[in-house]
Design goal:
Elements lengths: L1 E6 L6 H11 L11 E7 L5 E9 L2 E9 L2 H26 L11 E2 L10 E3 L7 E2 L1 H11 L3 E6 L5 E6 L5 E4 L3
Parallel strand pairs: 1-2, 7-8
Antiparallel strand pairs: 2-3, 3-4, 5-6, 8-9, 9-10
Helix pairs in contact: 1-2
Length: 174
C-alpha cells in the first residue's frame, strides 16, 4: 500500500512517521498494493490530530482523530477505520469494482454580502454509477451529511443526504 504523509503548518519527526507506518501496515491484509493511504498530521488548539484516508477500488475510508500525542490519535483512527471495514465488509465485497466514483464537495466561506461567494475548497474523485444503497454506504464511510453520485439505473446525477429527523433522503432531477 502506498502511504503519503503530510504535515500542516508543522514538522513531523521521522520517528512519528515510522511509528505510524508500522501501525498502519496492518491494513495491507485488507487492501492490496493498489490502495493509497493519505496520513495528515496537524496541531489545532494544542491537540495532536491525525487524518487517515484510504482509497482502494473506488471506495474511500476516512478517520479523523485528535489526542494528547500523535500515537494516541493514530491508535484511535486505526480503531475507527477497523470498525468501518468490519461493519461494511460483506456489503463491500459484493459491490467493489475496479472503477472509481466522483463527488464534488465545496465548502463555502462566510458570506457577508449575498453577491460575493468565495469557493474555499473543491474535491474531485473518479466517478462510477452506483445504487442508492451503495451511495448511502459511501456517504457513511466518508462521514458526510450528503453524497453526490450517478444512479446506476437512470444514469442521472443524484444526491443522498442524512435527514435531521432520522433516515435518508434522495434528490433526483426531473
Amino acid at each position: 500500500m502506498k502511504m503519503n504523509f503530510t504535515a500542516r503548518q508543522m514538522r513531523v519527526f521521522d520517528s512519528v512517521k515510522e511509528n505510524a507506518q508500522k501501525k498502519l501496515a496492518k491494513f495491507d491484509k485488507f487492501f492490496g498494493d493498489e490502495a493509497e493511504m493519505d496520513i495528515t498530521f496537524s496541531m489545532p488548539n494544542n491537540l495532536e490530530k491525525v487524518e487517515i484516508t484510504i482509497r482502494s477500488q473506488g471506495m474511500v475510508y476516512r478517520a479523523e482523530e485528535a489526542g494528547e500525542t500523535f500515537a494516541n490519535a493514530i491508535d484511535s483512527a486505526i480503531s475507527a477505520l477497523e470498525r468501518q471495514i468490519r461493519k461494511n465488509k460483506t456489503r463491500l465485497q459484493k459491490r467493489i469494482k475496479s472503477e472509481g466514483f466522483q463527488i464534488a464537495d465545496e465548502d463555502i466561506g462566510d458570506v457577508g454580502d449575498e453577491e460575493y461567494v468565495q469557493t474555499v475548497r473543491t474535491k474531485t474523485f473518479p466517478f462510477k454509477p452506483m445504487s442508492v444503497e451503495e451511495a448511502i454506504l459511501q456517504m457513511n464511510l466518508l462521514g458526510h451529511d450528503f453524497f453526490v453520485f450517478k444512479d446506476a439505473d437512470s444514469l442521472e446525477t443524484c444526491v443522498v443526504y442524512r435527514r435531521k429527523a432520522g433516515g435518508y433522503g434522495l434528490i433526483v432531477p426531473e
